[in-house]
Known about the structure:
By secondary structure, the protein is an alpha/beta fold. It has a single domain, classed as Spore Coat Polysaccharide Biosynthesis Protein SpsA, Chain A (Alpha-Beta Complex). The protein contains nine helices and ten strands. Helix 7 runs parallel beside helix 9. The termini are far apart. Keywords: Transferase.
Amino acid sequence: MPTVSVITAAYAPSAAYLAETVASVDAQRLPHGWDLEWIVQEDGAAPSLAHHFARAPYVRYEANGAQLGIAATRNLGLSRATGDLIQVLDSDDMLLPGALESLIPKFDEHRIHWAIGQADDLMPDGSRVEWPSAFPDGIVPAGSVNRHAEEHGGNWPIHCAGLLLRAVTLRAIGGWVGLPSDEDIAMFAALSQISDGYNLDGKTWLYRQHPQQITRASTTRHLSEDCRRFALQRAKAIEATGLKFDGNGQFRFDTSLHQVAVGEASKEHLR
């Protein structure tokens, strides 16, 4: 049975809306034959969010026990995921009913490596602000997203917080990039440069706007230009090397790709 893994990097100081996020995942329907797991990885030295998931049997929760940042936290979650597809979901955002049910079949119908539906901004007063899509409904050819970003001052037309991705592709490019900001953009710049995706015109999630958002943090916000420059540099470097998925790679859902075993780290001791 193929599995979709929702991955959430949670952090207690910005988890005020977590109950609504939990309810949105609980309400998801899946295509026939699919299973769901939710990988929750809590960042921070004093984890306190485990109780939010006690009633959800499909949740696999772990805590870092240290503050490692969102990129490292997501990658630790990815290391535990057993799913063939990875749904990104922040702890303050919400999946709309039918989101996974509508997006997952696109991976059977098309040789794509990522898919996304449209999102409304969910404002603090509960209202929703709609944003027009930069691409029509359908296949988004490899490289198109980054060309659009370069033409628009390093602003990407696809919101990376709602992506559904092939796990094998995400791991092949190294997961999320170790940057202090825009780590998801730098990941997606590489992935979308070498693979086709699918842009679904329908609404599948809500992106919550609130003062405690990590993306609003003054500690890293001033670094956004450097981080987005890195993302574009990465895309151009990949283009220069000619790297691309040509359709002959691993497209079937194969659980053996996720089943690896490791033991205690073997270190050389100084005498």
